[in-house]
Amino acid sequence: MHETELIERCRSGDRAAFAALVEPSRTQVWAVCVQITSNRHDAEDALQDALIAAWQNLDKFRGTSRFGSWLYRIASNAALAIVRKRREIPDDEIDLGRASTVPGPADRVVDTDAVRHALAQLPEQFRVAVVLREYAQMSYAEIAEHQNVPVATVKTRINRGRAQLVELLDPTRLDPAGLDP
User: Fold this and answer.
1) Exposed site from 74, 127, 138, 147, fewest CB < 10 Å?
2) How would you classify residue 38: left for phi > 0, otherwise alpha for psi between -120 and 50, otherwise beta?
3) Which of 97, 110, 102, 120 has the alpha carbon at shortest distance from 30?
4) pLDDT above 80 (res 106)
């Protein structure tokens, strides 16, 4: 069944069609939420918020982009909202035990904790641009639309974000205990 047919069925209240519509993007949407929040529990909340928002606002989907691109935008906004909300919580009330890793194929290639930690240190607009490009595989034009900036700005943000990630992940920056100097 084509995406447009699934969307029409969803708009008629067909929840099974919504599950079929979301399924091809689910892994990337999850990755976007995890990478923006840097926390499995917050990512679960963001994913749930995104799916609810997508279902409730399906009538606002114009069809000018792929459904998956629209869902990535909703997910990144939901994840950012949770991150912003978390920043309002005093540090002494944060449960450090909640942070966890999400096992996956990337664990065999890189230390995902280090990547998440480095991503969390990037300025928000760089982090979102990099996550949407690398994890959601959105085009520069789609990211530009999401961030409401020109494509050239997106390219700059991604390049600067990647450069900062390389610097943050440089093993020579770490002391023997694995802590930043």
Assistant:
1) 147
2) left
3) 102
4) no
In sequence order, what are the residues at sequence separation of 6 or more whose Cβ sits closer than 8 angstroms to the Cβ of residue 81?
Answer: 46, 49
Enter the tokens of residue 79.
């994840």
Q: List, in sequence order, the alpha helices (H) in 23-123.
A: 26-37, 40-56, 67-87, 112-121
CB atoms within 10 A of CB 4: 10
Cβ neighbours of residue 164 closer than 8 Å, sequence gap 6 or more: 118, 121, 122, 126
Q: What is the mean pLDDT of residues 48-69?
A: 88
Give me the pLDDT at residue 105, please: 42
CA dist., res. 37 & res. 44, Å (int): 10
pLDDT of 20:
92
Contacts of 119 by beta carbon, 8 Å cutoff, 6+ apart: 35, 36, 38, 127, 130, 131, 165
